[in-house]
Design brief:
49% helix, Znf_C2H2_type, 2 strands, mainly alpha
Length: 68
């Protein structure tokens, strides 16, 4: 059994080791996906993907211009 300072240090190290990592994949995804299709609200990473999305999902519509 440890006492005093050793116990406190052991508890602190154990708490740091068991602490969950900061951030999540959902947060990282939200940061990466910056462009949204105004018609169906799909989030896309860049303007090229938006153009591809419009050609496949909304062929009769014209993609919005680069306003970023």
């Amino acid at each position: 059994m440890t006492r005093g300072k050793q116990k406190i240090e052991a508890q602190r190290k154990n708490a740091e080791k068991n602490q969950k990592s900061k951030g999540s994949q959902f947060e990282a995804r939200a940061v990466a996906l910056k462009i949204t299709c105004p018609i169906c609200k799909v989030q896309l990473a860049n303007q090229n993907q938006l153009g591809d999305h419009y050609s496949s999902k909304h062929p009769k519509e014209k993609p919005p211009s680069d306003s970023s």
